[in-house]
Structure formats: C-alpha cells, structure tokens
Amino acid sequence: MRSQHPDKTGHGYVIERYVMRMDSDAPRYLELNGARALRPGWPHAERFARHMIEDAVSITDEELEALLAYEWRSRLTGAWLIGVGRRESFRERIAGLLLASEVCYSGAGYCFALARFATREDSEILTAYLDHYLARTDLHYDQGAALGALLHLDARLATHYADRFTQPDGPWNQWVEGVGRLGYPSHTPAELRRWTDLQCGFANGWSHV
User: Fold this and answer.
1) 6-207 maps to which CATH number?
2) Which of 77, 169, 180, 192 has its Cα between 20 and 30 A from that of 54?
3) How many CB atoms lie within 10 A of CB 95?
C-alpha cells in the first residue's frame, strides 16, 4: 500500500489540523506516541482530552481516510481519533493496516482502536496479527500492544483468545526470548493489559461512551 500525501485528495489541511495540533508544548502525535496524557497530574490533560473528543466527533470519514493513507504520524493520530469516536466502520481498514505493519509506531494506535470497538471480531483481528507476528522472533513491531489489547478484550468480553499465546513456553514467551537476544526489552502480559486498560479507561472518561 503506497503512502499518499493528503494534498493528493484535497485534504492537505488535515496534517496541521489534527496531527500537528498543539494542545500542549508538543504536537498531538507526539503526545499520543509518548502517552503523557495518561500520566497523573499532566497539566494539559483537560484541554488535550476536550479537543480529542471534539475532533473525534467532527472529523469526516474522508479526512480520516486521508490520515490513514499517509505516514506514521498521521496514521497514529487517525487511529486514535477512530478509537475515541468508536468509528467501527473503519474496522476492516484498521485490520488491514495492522496486519500489513508498513510503518513504525502507528500499530499501537490500531490496537487501541480495536480495543475500543470491543467485539469478538476485534479479538479475532488481534489474534490473526499475533499468529503471524509472534512467529517472527527477529521482529519487534506491535506484538506487545496487540497482546495487551487482546487481554483487555478477553477481560471485557469474558473470552479466552489470549490463553494460547500466554501459556508457559508458549508463543509469547518464545517471542520475548527471541527479541530479547536482539536487545529489545519486553513487558509482562499483565503490564501490557494494564496499559491498554489505562488507554481505554481514559478514553471512556473523555467521551462518556
């Protein structure tokens, strides 16, 4: 899938409006990637949250598509806006982007959006991703974010999709050992689920939906 600048579809303004928006001392995409909004006591939290939900409601499908068709900053931002607004019509698009894993960082946004949609279909998308990418012990992509989202959904939906990944000496542990040899740190499944819980809990507080 080739990256396309929003200018090509007449949506060049979406980068400045949604991705580079300054609700703090850093552009929005950096705040989403660094997750300062989840830290207690962050002084810009109220304004950041208010503008996120306003944009998640007002952004059009065409504008979201323009974000998802470009590079990682716009894809990450678009995925978060989709997740906050629970735009489930983008489920298939998000699934395709996650499984393709074309650019860095944005995959965590896709996993957040799927966790927000919160259906078994979303669990199956995350499962398909983990089936494919946990087998790649030479790659550190978004395996952690995907497992955290899947564990979050298991707890919410009373399902057990993640069980076969997290069993002793199972795919998760084998992947952790593999990327550990490459020098990549990892987190426990409990830590990863807690992170997704924080993201979704904060988004629930923003949107009250």
Assistant:
1) 1.25.10
2) 192
3) 20
